[in-house]
Design goal:
The protein is mostly beta strands and 706 residues long. The chain is built from two helices and 53 strands.
Length: 706
């Protein structure tokens, strides 16, 4: 930790003397038909590019002599010792979320990492020759050979097996992917798909439309194919953008498509935008800002929101990002944000926040504060910025003088290194390539507010002569001088859970805001024969789809880090909901409010605490320090990081008995925190069919029960 210096506020330098010239590649309105993306590097949303998923916890570095060195989480590719003798003459490295594949100069391939999720290619080793490019879903690889044929391996259901379409996989030009399916674009403009049917692997319903396709885009579970005539064809999970029928008449003259985890945004030739997917959430509904979506040149996204960059350098955002604000707080915040979002040249994102790089080299952040949306503690240091990298909840900005600044993960903000040339990231770590060719890395112990730890598994010889580090989806670097000015207006809908019904079908649903109630639906409860449905005080509620959550946990791309422990403590409050504490990294918090706030999304209040001489922990309660028994039946508490992408993270937490205390080495007592009842009690959703194992220090992984 020697290089982790506390945040300071030195005098700002004369920026204009340090800046160069920027060349921007904005689309030109009125341009001809869209071109293929072959060889292009662009992220669709965090952790996913056009045809590759980023390794979430390990790095692989390519050295000048074509050898490879690795570090990070060993099971996901951080340890390549078993194939070290084969890693020579390597020219590029690709990844799934849990494994790596190295393409050598002679067209052969070497793989390592999680064996089931792409790290073991022995079954197809004899076919991995004359390979020119490799693509991936979250847990499977597809290699494109020089003759246009395709070889697949990894998790079979998720794209690792393509035997059913093998005869059709010839003359392939490029491959795209969702999290669990592949789509191969052929030279004649047709498309072949495989993998999980519902999430894009089955395109039979639209196969007759898949002609003259020039590029394919994806969310986590759906594809959108852009045709040469500027129209769009979609398939896959309707809730993730696979059904565009409601906006089909608008999908003409499209020049490019962008995506969040579950929604699409199509940029038209005239600079307007069409959105769909996500059941109206996650960026799929832009009606609140439709009048402002003009002269748009590029669109950026995180997992649940879009940000459109306009020709004048202003930015329009919609969906998900601000839902934790009160009505008054949101209005004030939005007005301030509009004033600051001018002269923007590009935008970066974590899962729940954005960072806009301006032409003067400064940075504006917004979104979920815990994910880097609040950079106030380090704002004075954010100048002369060249590029920004991000993990799930942390930003790292590289300054023109080689300094790296880090913020996010709650209240973390500090200077990390100097003399840095490039920065790279996984979901939980950064790696810095310094000007002298050496490498230093840093990672976080938990998803919440765990302390950063500097680490490197490279010896002195391995950490030199590095030319590139993977994952490296896109390399964006800017030198900025020009000035632009503009003003933007707009507002987003404030979260207020709204019940509504469809009078034609009788379907009833809860929507996160009144704005998301579809046209033709009526807010409130439908009339009942005999008597009206009683209007009870509604519970604070979250989507509790057991099957979807179970599948999410089983297909997780990384072990879940323990955020802390959750246990009961009698504060002698009149409301029993406040008699709970959350302990993390020696800090103690009391649950103190059901309403979300900007700084405290889950409603926890920090308590004064201290360690006693015997190692026990005490908290200041009613004027004196009282012991807190950490062994009185506590629960492990883990944050799911908005697993359902609904923008509300207050109840995205798992609780389970510590597996270490079980003689079986695992536990099946698993619950999701699922809301607060109108009487002030926590609700819990039991998750059956799962067992949770410890796989490291305060890290856990889920497996199905027999």
């Amino acid at each position: 930790m020697d290089n982790l210096r506390p945040f300071s506020r030195p005098r700002r330098a004369l920026l204009s003397l340090l800046l160069g010239i920027v060349t921007l590649s904005f689309p030109t309105f009125g341009q001809s038909t869209p071109q293929s993306t072959e060889g292009e590097c662009r992220e669709l949303f965090p952790e996913h590019s056009f045809g590759e998923w980023k390794n979430v916890r390990a790095f692989a570095a390519l050295r000048e002599d074509g050898t490879v060195t690795t570090w990070g989480y060993k099971p996901f590719g951080g340890d390549s010792s078993l194939v070290a003798d084969q890693l020579t003459n390597v020219k590029k490295i690709y990844s799934t979320a849990q494994a790596f594949a190295a393409l050598k100069d002679d067209g052969t391939v070497v793989t390592w990492g999680d064996r089931e999720n792409g790290g073991d290619s022995t079954e197809v080793a004899d076919q991995l020759i004359h390979v020119k490019a490799i693509y991936s879903t979250g847990i499977a690889f597809a290699a494109l050979r020089e003759d246009g044929t395709v070889v697949t391996w990894g998790r079979k259901r998720y794209g690792g097996e393509s035997k059913e379409v093998a005869q059709l996989l010839g003359h392939v030009k490029e491959i795209f992917s969702t999290q669990t399916a592949f789509a191969a674009l052929k030279e004649d403009g047709s498309v072949i798909t495989w993998g999980r049917d519902y999430y894009g692997g089955d395109s039979r319903s639209v196969s007759h439309k898949l002609t003259n396709v020039v590029r394919i885009y994806s969310t986590r579970g759906a594809f959108a194919a852009l045709k040469r005539d500027g129209t769009v064809v979609t398939w896959g999970d309707p809730a993730q953008g696979g059904d565009s029928s409601s906006v089909a008449h608008k999908l003409t003259d499209i020049v490019e498509i962008f995506s969040t985890g579950r929604a699409f945004a199509a940029l038209k030739r005239d600079g307007t935008v069409v959105t769909w997917g996500g059941n109206g959430l996650f960026g799929g509904d832009s009606s609140a800002v439709a009048s402002e979506l003009t002269n748009v040149v590029k669109i950026f996204s995180n997992t649940g929101a879009f940000a459109a960059l306009r020709k004048d350098g202003s930015v329009i955002t919609w969906d998900g990002t601000y839902r934790f604000f009160s009505q008054e707080g949101y209005k004030e915040y939005q007005e301030d944000l509009k004033k600051r979002l001018t002269n923007v040249v590009t935008i970066f994102s974590t899962s729940g926040a954005f960072a806009a790089l301006k032409r003067d080299g400064t940075v504006v952040t917004w979104g979920y504060p815990m994910d880097g949306g609040d950079s106030s503690r380090i704002q004075d240091e954010l100048y002369n910025i060249k590029t920004i990298a991000s993990t799930t909840d942390v930003f790292a900005a590289l300054r023109g003088d080689g300094t790296v600044l880090i913020w996010g993960a709650g209240d973390i903000a500090f200077k990390w290194l100097t003399n840095v040339k490039k920065i790279y990231s996984t979901a939980r770590a950064f790696a810095a390539l310094k000007n002298d060719g050496t490498v230093t890395a840093i990672h976080w112990d938990s998803w919440d507010t765990g302390s950063p730890s500097q680490f490197s598994y490279l010896n002195e010889e391995e950490a030199t002569h590095i030319v590139n580090i993977f994952p490296n989806l896109c390399d964006k670097e800017y030198h900025l001088t020009e000035k632009l000015s503009s003003n933007t207006d707009g507002a987003l809908c404030i979260q207020k859970i709204t019940h509504a019904y469809n009078p034609k079908t009788g379907e009833e649903r809860d929507f996160p805001t009144p704005c998301h109630v579809p046209e033709g639906w009526i807010q409130g409860y439908p009339p009942r024969e005999g008597s009206a449905k009683p209007q009870k005080e509604k519970e604070i509620f979250l989507n509790s789809d057991k099957e979807a959550l179970r599948e999410y946990l089983l297909s997780s791309q990384y072990p879940f880090g323990e955020s802390g422990i959750f246990l009961h403590y009698d504060f002698e409050e009149t409301d029993p909901i406040y008699d709970w504490v959350f302990v993390t990294s020696g800090l103690v918090y009391q649950f103190h409010g059901k309403e979300a706030t900007r700084k405290n999304i889950f409603g926890w209040k920090k308590l004064e605490s201290k360690y006693n001489d015997d190692g026990t922990l005490s908290i200041l309660d009613r004027g004196e320090y009282r012991p807190l028994s950490l062994h009185s039946n506590p629960w492990v508490m883990v944050r799911l990081d908005d697993w359902d992408l609904d923008g509300d993270r207050r109840f995205d937490w798992l609780l389970f008995r510590p597996p270490q205390q079980s003689p079986k080495g695992y536990t099946t007592s698993i619950f999701k925190l699922d809301g607060i009842t109108s009487t002030g009690e926590f609700k819990y959703l039991p998750l059956s069919g799962l067992k949770v194992y410890p796989v490291g220090r305060k890290e856990y992984i889920f497996k199905p029960t027999p």
